[in-house]
Amino acid sequence: MNKRKLSFWEIWNMSFGFLGIQFGFALQGGFMSRIFQTLGAEKDAIPLLWIAAPLTGLLVQPIIGYLSDRTWSPRWGRRRPYFLIGAVLSSIALFLVPHSPALWVAAGFLWILDASINISMEPFRALVADKLPESQRSYGFVTQTLIIGIGTWVASNLPWMISQMGVSDAAPNGVIPMSVKIAFAIGAFVFLASILYTVFTTSEYPPEDMEEFEREKKKKNQFIPDILNNIGSMPLTMKKLGLIQFFSWFAFFTMWSLANPALTEHVFSTPAPIESTFNMDVPESAAAFEKANTAFQKSSNEVGRYMGTYGLSSMAFALILTFYTSRKRINRKWVHLGSLVLGGLGFISMYFIPSPEWLFLSFTLVGFAWGSILSMPYAMLSSAVDPKKMGVIMGIFNMFIVIPQIIAAVGGVNFAYKLIGNETINAMLVAGISLIIAGMCNLLIVNKDAITYNPKGEVE
């Protein structure tokens, strides 16, 4: 199919729903560990509590990719019905998460939230490949990354902003502060509103061969065989990208699950207080617990705010690439390699910084890696696979995102950082080393179309 080139605003409209998706992910990534700690979770138990996120992605994304490939409605299109269903479910879950009365309830809501976000997210990746000609693929994925950066920065700063408006960070033991509850409610609204904007401003191309499409739809019990067949026939470039994704997402899962305990302890010197070490029947001891808990909640706001920096720098990175890729081709391999190495150095620097203000620089470097992770692998992949199977291929590719996170969650990250020492900050060193390894794995990519799309087949 000959696809026309789209304007910036057409690409912006079709990608705008990612603002809400990233609000959900940023609130989840920046504050779920804080919620778990507030509800009494031990530090080393936090990665396992996070296992809901990768497990739901492993199950949901291939299924949604497969179903969306086989969906067509003249009114709603192929991918948009899934955007909408996921948005409604995600918004409900986002609102309810900070109202969890117990740890097991919060963990359960994380399962629901992450499954719902994945229902919306996977078709967005496929939509770029569906709508854009090959020459605009990098441009499209980078524009998505620009919007993701905006969402990450704003959402990560929400509890801090709300606290600055006078909403209290203090709360009784085991209760999530009001500043966090309001932030999640705002996130729920933005999620639904941004998805609706994309649904109503974006059209989709119908299947190129409708008769063949209808025949494929009528085939029964093809899901598992199709998935296994696509895994078995996976292009070599996709496998190599999978190795890069493995180390990249191991690093970011480590950040999402352990940055809050690591940085509140090592950088802010305000660890989460353990109730059992206080005699809550003695007023002075109870007051000391409340003071320590409020200090932890405030420093957690600061950690979230500094983490938002990686969204800001990824946004700037994406903005530069958006302007550049709208006019010229880029060498995706070298861009991704350099970005991941810079991100790794950002993580490693967190161990050595003399004061919290330096976290701004650390997370700025991490943002370069994040901006590249959200665009370059998908741009390289989309140039190396069958466009008719883009939805299911993107879903299968997600395995290379969730498998490292599952390994990290079931003990991999705790094992790795304790090889260095027992302090939680060592987890950030592990994240940095992992990103640098991911960067070096880009040297394995040799497919010319994946590295730099060029109609003449040349690599620049």
Automatic annotation (TrEMBL):
Molecular function via GO: transmembrane transporter activity
Protein's cellular compartments: Membrane
Pfam families in the cross-refs: MFS_1
UniProt KW keywords: Membrane, Transmembrane, Transmembrane helix, Transport
SUPFAM superfamilies noted in UniProt: MFS general substrate transporter
Top-level taxonomic group: Bacteria
Listed transmembrane segments: 12-36, 48-68, 80-97, 103-121, 141-162, 182-200, 241-259, 306-325, 334-353, 359-380, 392-413, 425-446
Keyword tRNA-binding: no
InterPro entries (alphabetical): MFS (IPR011701), MFS_trans_sf (IPR036259)
GO CC terms: membrane
Keyword Signal in annotation: no
Membrane protein topology class: Multi-pass membrane protein
Entry-linked PANTHER family: SOLUTE CARRIER FAMILY 45 MEMBER 3 ISOFORM X1 (PTHR19432:SF35), SUGAR TRANSPORTER (PTHR19432)
Protein name as annotated: Major facilitator transporter
